Amino acid sequence: MLNENTLAKLRDLKLSSMADGFNEQLSNPNFEQMAFEERFGLLVDAEWTRRENNRMDRLFKNATFSMSSACIENIEYHADRKLDRKLITKLGTCNYIGEHHNVIILGTTGSGKTYLANALGVTASRKRFTVKYIKLPDLMSELAIAYGEGRYHKTLKQYAQVKLLILDEWLLLPLRGDEPRFLFDLVDARCNSASTIFCSQFEPSGWHDKIGDFALADSVCDRIVNNAHTIMAGSKDSESMRRRKGLKEAEV
Which pLDDT belongs to residue 204? Predict the structure, then answer.
């Protein structure tokens, strides 16, 4: 009866792995030769492992990576890409996130910007940082809807709190309407408190025209560029990674 009560209490406390382990110890005579500390340690390890695995699953699910299998180890350093291996290895430590630095990934269509960004994001998730991947046009639409429904500040706060935000298709299209203000609010909210990866086909010198509002554009660029590492993913002379991979999405 005592053991049954203990099992029930463990499950009531949502310590399911400890409960399963305890039940196994009761039914397996091999555990009788072990000291109490060893048996208890096994129960704690089982519960800790389950919770860590669940936490990792949540981090990856919430990150909404477009390439969840991307990893730094599989990046292809073809000569014509001229990737800075030393910088990418440095970013792989994720120290830049703790320092609240940004990353700008520049390259033409098919140069592998998205893979690089996802690889850095996956690495950050593995190190227990919260990550969110989203294309800038989709984010602008989400903020516009939130603004119309009176949820703007709540939605903005959620994005501001993400430790690493990956913005793909950064300023691929010119901003319209209230979007320059939305963009400034987002960048300002994250400035010096979180890190952002910007994937763009355009050099920062061309961002002003894409944002439209010169004053806001100047403020946005100042908050990003002066606190960022820059990765050149490829130029017009580099072979497209999509071509290298055939008909598949550019993977590296």
Answer: 95
